[in-house]
Amino acid sequence: MSTHEKDTFVNTYEWASSWEDLPWAHDEPTLFLAEICRRRPPGRALDIGCGAGTDSVFLAQQGWDVTSLDFVPKALEFTCKRAEEAGVTVTPVEADITAWQPPHSYDLVLDHGLLHNMDPVRYSKYREVVLQAVGDAGEFVLLHWHPLFPGQPNGEYGPTRVDREDIKTFFAPELQERFAAIEYFESLPPAVGGGMAQAYYWFRPNQAWLKPAELVQQIRNTLARNDVDVDAAPDAGGDPDLLATVLGPGRLGWRHVLPTADEVSESIDEMAERSGESPAALNKLLAVFSDAKRGNICTADARCNVCEVDFCKRRRYR
Question: Candidates 3.40.50.300, 3.40.50.150, 3.40.50.720, 3.30.240.20; correct CATH number of 3-205?
Fold first, then answer.
């Protein structure tokens, strides 16, 4: 960790007489948290860079077992005091996320503005720890500053502005974007670069990437239940453009952006290696699966009503 990075936060907390004084203090829980609480029962949550404690306390009030992590002791003091006042408890952990080892996975991991204040030399370690922390069926919510306009420079004191595509690339292929939203601020102090767009991301683990053999079996099962004999089907190759769609972010999500024709072959080879299939067999399986004259399932006008590939985005979020 750079000394300047930590000193900046320590000095801000020492100046603040209460959590409300912090520049990043917020009264309402971070976007998407309330919806996650509505959709799933409480479990284990990790609040990375808990700051003023708003989100940790909110989640604890919803019944979550909350670990509040920060490298500034006073941030943890604010969080624990607010939790006590609210009649709930949290588990405080004083640590730098990039030097911390998660003791287990979490059902929900939250970063309300830590990554965009981090020295880029620590990004890879941050990413490694987050991927360890998010459970296979977990959720990851991130708040990160976004450019208000293309090429907008960062301010003297940051935070770093990164656009949506770069954020998705940073967490791919292990995590997939579920939702994204942007809130605009046209006037901020020059020291932080003036206006900005504040982006909120809700990610989930990419099941296709995590369980490639299961993905391939889901495709086989779907074809079998639709009376498609893959072995007996003609060996013609698939349409590269359609295969790109099938492998892209809107369907199987093997790639977080639509692959080119060259990348289709690379993607199939990659999937074959990770799933234990032969590239030739997998290529034929996907070709039959997407061809209207053979499998007639994942065609240009996908027949999701007869498909049982639960890892596909079109089915998963219907």
Answer: 3.40.50.150
